[in-house]
Design brief:
- By secondary structure, the protein is of the alpha/beta class.
- The chain folds into three domains: about 240 residues, Carbamate kinase; about 140 residues, Rossmann fold (3-Layer(aba) Sandwich); about 140 residues, 2-Layer Sandwich (Dihydrodipicolinate Reductase, domain 2).
- The chain is about 40% helix and about 20% strand.
- It has 19 helices and 25 strands.
- The strands form five sheets. The chain has a nine-stranded mixed beta sheet, sandwiched between helices.
């Protein structure tokens, strides 16, 4: 299988309630955009297992341990299914694989069984097809097909069993702390030191509530290294058989100050997502057209400075300025003002980058700031990151989700007018969708790709790209192509089954990203809508947050 595999385990300390599923989605998206295949192992929401156990006792079921195990497994089934739905909303393809699907077997007591194996080939095949699989942790099936649980904290064991069987490059147990400490960092007293690395024996001497001891022993017996860390952690405690190393006392840092220019469809989504990360981001200022209309919402989110002048707001002294006002000239002025004021900038605005990207990136370098623009190409599909990561020499893709949504509806016999009306109703098309329909938006995205890849544009052609000329009932795609000679083309093409651009439903995007050896790397994701775009913006913010801790990917080199 092409691509590295990481197993991420999300426990109840992270998934305190359903809204925190978005936080888990950020972590999955982080690793996907860096090119990893992700296995997400999910615990029940905090308190859910205890509530289910109490219900067993109240109903008199507890005496039947297999019935109890079946009921307790419902917590993990629920959270895993809801995580898949959450990932779909932010634009990531994910498949739910429960223990029955992957033949995860265990033997022993119904409430403290020991895993005996699973179908690794089935999991790897699913990863190859969609990039993310979600597995409910904590339980397996015995030889009679009955649900059995793996003991308190058993999702840790599920994650390690999968990592071992898949020969995964990494396995990280995602907790509410950024690693293992010599004592509980939440208790009063001098701050404890964090373990940079810890051997199995020392971890087994720690409180088993952080990492299940049964899981640690499983890893120890097989020489399996794993990590313990927090969401978006720049580092984590590595657990293996090497000598334990204690680091320095960890000193927390204040949240990064953010100025948000625009709180419309995308900006409003970013505001909502950042509101769930108060320990990392403080939205201190915002620029909106209608101060009176937006003030109640912004004040509810703790925004202290509200302006109707985006350039003024960009100079407020924030650590990061998010440009979500759209357009070209106002956005150019605001981005320039933010960089000159010492702020990093995150934008989803492909139009301003297509026209002024070279000068803005040059300004970012001169100011020693970063200008990140993941959301400008592909939405939830990390096309830009993949292209830069592999040093692409050619890209061929469906890069406009609005156009693809309408073409998908036309293939079903829907009229142009009805398809556009539905796209507007779903928030996939703007009031004036002409740039999406005639290919100019896709061309802008090709120019952004060329800029990041260091390819100088030599010729462009969008004469055959207008989906308003597409006939009803045919499977057509608005295909955007960047060639190594700098030729940019957007055209309507008939795609056949087997083509990576054939099975691209609705507002989804897909791209073939070719490396210099001619190998195609296929990237897919939801390409239009509030949440996929907001997720890509927040991913850039989280990238900058990791960077101040000394670890960040080198994906978007044009702005470094």
């Amino acid at each position: 299988m092409r691509g590295r595999v990481i197993v991420l385990k999300f426990g109840g300390s992270v998934l305190t309630d359903e809204r925190r599923l978005r936080i888990a989605a950020h972590e999955v998206y982080r690793w996907r955009r860096e090119g990893w295949h992700v296995v997400a192992v999910v615990s029940a929401f905090a308190g859910r297992t205890d509530a289910l156990l109490a219900s067993c006792r109240g109903d008199g079921i507890e005496a039947d341990t297999f019935a109890t195990a079946a009921i307790l497994s419902c917590g993990e089934r629920e959270s895993a299914a809801k995580l898949v739905a959450c990932l779909d909303r932010v634009g990531l393809r994910a498949t739910l694989l429960d223990p029955a699907a992957i033949r995860l077997r265990a033997a022993g007591p119904a409430l403290d069984a020991q895993p005996t194996g699973f179908d690794a080939h089935y999991v790897l095949g699913s990863l190859e097809r969609c990039g993310v699989v979600v597995v409910p942790g904590f339980f397996a099936l015995d030889q009679q097909g009955r649900a059995v649980t793996l003991g308190r904290g058993g999702s840790d064991l599920t994650a390690l069993v999968l990592a071992h069987g898949l020969d995964a490059e990494r396995c990280r147990l995602v907790k509410d702390v950024d690693g293992l400490y010599e004592r509980d960092p939440a208790r009063q007293g001098p701050p404890p030191r964090r373990y940079e690395s810890a051997n199995y024996a020392d971890v087994l001497r720690l409180d088993g509530s952080i990492v299940q001891h049964k899981a640690v022993r499983f890893a120890q017996q097989r020489g399996l290294a794993f990590e313990v860390g927090a969401i978006n952690a720049a580092g984590a405690t590595r657990v293996d058989d090497a000598p334990t190393v204690l680091g320095n006392v960890h000193v927390g840092q204040p949240p990064l100050r953010v100025a948000l220019l625009g709180v419309g469809v995308v900006g409003g989504g970013v505001l909502d997502l950042l509101g769930q990360l108060p320990e990392r981001f403080d939205v201190m200022a915002a620029a909106v057209r209608d101060i009176h209309g937006h003030a109640p919402t912004l004040e509810q989110h703790g925004v202290r400075t509200i302006s109707d002048n985006p350039v003024e707001a960009a100079r407020c002294g924030a650590d990061i300025v998010v440009e979500a006002i759209g357009g070209v000239e106002s956005a150019r002025l605001a981005i320039g003002a933010a960089l000159q004021a010492g702020s990093h900038v995150v934008t989803a605005n492909k139009a301003v980058l297509a026209e002024h990207g070279a000068e803005l990136f040059a300004l970012a370098r001169a100011c020693d700031r970063r200008l990140l623009a993941s959301a400008s190409v592909g939405g939830g599909a990390a096309v830009l990151e993949a292209a830069v990561r592999i040093g692409a020499c050619r890209v061929r893709g469906v890069l406009n989700g609005t156009a693809n949504f309408i073409l998908s509806r036309l293939a079903r016999g829907c009229t142009h007018e009805a398809a556009l009306s539905e796209a507007r109703r779903l928030g996939l098309a703007e009031a004036d969708p002409s740039r999406d329909l005639d290919g100019r938006d896709a061309l802008d995205k090709l120019r952004v790709l060329a800029l990041h890849l260091g390819i100088e544009e030599s010729r462009s052609d969008i004469r055959r790209a207008d989906i308003r000329l597409a006939p009803l009932g045919r499977c057509l795609r608005q295909v955007a192509t960047l060639d190594r000679d700098g030729t940019l083309t957007v055209a309507l093409e008939a795609v056949e089954p087997g083509d990576p651009l054939h099975d691209v439903p609705g507002e989804w995007n897909a791209a073939e990203v070719f490396d210099h050896e001619g190998r195609a790397h296929v990237v897919r994701g939801r390409g239009a809508g509030r949440w996929p775009t907001a997720e890509a913006v927040v991913a850039d913010l989280l990238e900058l947050e990791r960077a101040r801790h000394g670890l960040a990917s080198e994906v978007l080199v044009a702005g470094s």
